[in-house]
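Researcher: Re-running this chain for the archive, since the previous output was lost when a drive failed. Same request as before.
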Amino acid sequence: MKILAWLRSISGQVLRRGTHRLDVEEELRAHIALRADDMERAGLSRAEAERQARIEFGGFEKFREASHEALGGDLARSLAQDLRYALRMLSRNPGLAAIAVGSLALGIGANTAIFSLTNALLLDAMPVAHPKQLRLLGWQAQHQFGYKHLPMESLYGDVGFTKTGTATGTEFSWDEYEALQQTHAIFEGLTAYYHDAQANIEGGNDVERGTLEYVAPNFFQVLGVRAAVGRTILPSDGSDGGAPVVVLSDWLWRDMFGRSASVIGKRIEVNRIPLTVVGVAAQTFHGAGVDLDPALYLPLRLQPQVSPDQWDRGKSRLASGDTWWVRILGRIRPGVTNAQAAAALDGIFRQTAEATLHHSDRIDQEAVHLVVQAGDRGDAQRADTKFVPMDIGTSALAGLVLVLVCLNLANLCWPARPRGGGNSACAWRSARDVGVSPGNY
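Model: Regenerated structure tokens:
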């Protein structure tokens, strides 16, 4: 509020300079008259009292300058003078004007790009219903397990290590997901998803390459994402007898079908497997990843047919408790904290792991725990430790770009200054903004 009041004061000084001058004069005359009245009652003549009062208050210019400075008028006047000076200099030298505008455009553009990247990776929440209610599940284990001694045989994802040596991950087996899904008192809903590599997508006469996102039947319902056209994947699509269906992303719908509503019901082939299009995801939704922007959303049960992996050895990941591959997002109930949710789910998590893992003897009951963390940015939550150092670096780079732009303008003005020192002022004004004296440059 103080900043807004200060800005209003400065704008008033600039836009109502004449009115402000009259107000100051009137106020000064009132003060002088009141002081003269006091002196006249003390025994001085009226003329002498007014003369003494004017001497005591000082001249009008002194009073006006003090009032102007208290209200921020000096800054407003200085900014106005700088702006007029800059416009005169640029109009006299079109070449300098072009270089100055180009330099500023480069600096502003670079900073905008840097902020946009940082905002997308570290700040933006997923465009879903009430994203702050979402939680991403994970696990942590002591580092002595090592990659070769983790209890699961296959892990599709990254294992990170904290500074204290704790291994962390966000992938779970399908058995773990089904067991945790029963915790209705903690979460309003839990869903699972898996990002796959690029696949060949054929529709009509077009062929595209794009990533796939396999999702649980309740994925769109838990996130609160609606279809732009048609419908999303429903619980009935997740059953073994369900039809092989697919939901298109907005960009694939645009590139392959020209955003035609007649796409619903058409057949496309993904890695030579025929699928029926039942809907198109909302234009603002780009999956639960950092920046993958998947082309298609498929039911998780189709993964063995559409994207078989040699490491699966012909087995379905859905039936293998030793394969940890899906990530789990949940919508937590109001009033439940992350610590409470983790404590309530930890026993189920470890009990299921002991019952399904082939190397369950590697699990130390005191060393492996479930973790509940914010999930409003999906996989980006997992990437925080990777991107925070980059965020610091890009912020420093943004500041450096601005400094270089200002120094570049100062450097352009300084060498060509005439004897009268006209461009010396240009260099000073440019360098002043970044705290650099041109005498030391």
